[in-house]
Amino acid sequence: MPRETCLGCGKSFKRVGSHWARGSxxxxxxxxxxxxxxxxxxxxxxxxxxxxxxxxGLFRLPMVNKQFLEWFxxxxxILSTGVSLKKTAAELAQNNRESGFSPNARAENYHDxxxxxxxxHPFMRSLRQWYRSGEKRFPESLxxxxxxxxxxxxCDGCLDVQENGEPRAAIRIRNRDERQEFLLNxxxxxxxxxxxxxxTIRFGVEETRSFLDxxxxxPPGFEYKWVLDSRERYDRLKxxxxxxxxxx
Length: 248
Description:
Elements: E1 4-5, E2 12-13, H1 16-21, H2 32-43, E3 60-63, H3 66-76, E4 80-87, H4 89-99, E5 113-118, H5 122-126, H6 146-156, E6 157-160, E7 168-172, H7 180-188, E8 195-197, E9 200-202, H8 205-215, H9 231-241
């Protein structure tokens, strides 16, 4: 097992999280930019699972986009336990066949699933407040910053890239949150005016440009979700992001 160096005392440990939990050193401070990354990812694919032992929460982020997870792993640094393979494409296809979700599922139509699990930290535990109702629910105190919105968009957003017409951004509300006014107000507070329909936040052509510009540059692995000027480049970058054979 690789050893990690505690930033507080400079000593190396096989389980530096246990070292912090014992109170030997303070947990490392999580800076604002990293808190925003975690909050944005929690709005999407991220989760803070309930732990039976009452320990400080763990942050879990599963995804097929390995390039993004490697960036995420680097950003959270010592708080990460690394990028690991969760399920292969073949295993995912088999699970869907056996469950009946997709009886004809074939491995070539799936991607390997990876995950990053954090070390325990009090900030992660504080995010368990999002689950007070029994399921993940955005808190009323939530507000968007460019970085928070960016992480949410890469997790749950997409570009509707059609053969004719300009691309439009959208964000799927996966937790079926019915607070339409609350969700739209998140964007109105930053001078954006999307619409809400069928559990999806939708941006018009001009709003899409404003939204992407406001969030700033994309993180590694999701550059394709910012491409508005070329269907060919969109397809190429998307293929590269998921390691598809035809990526050039």
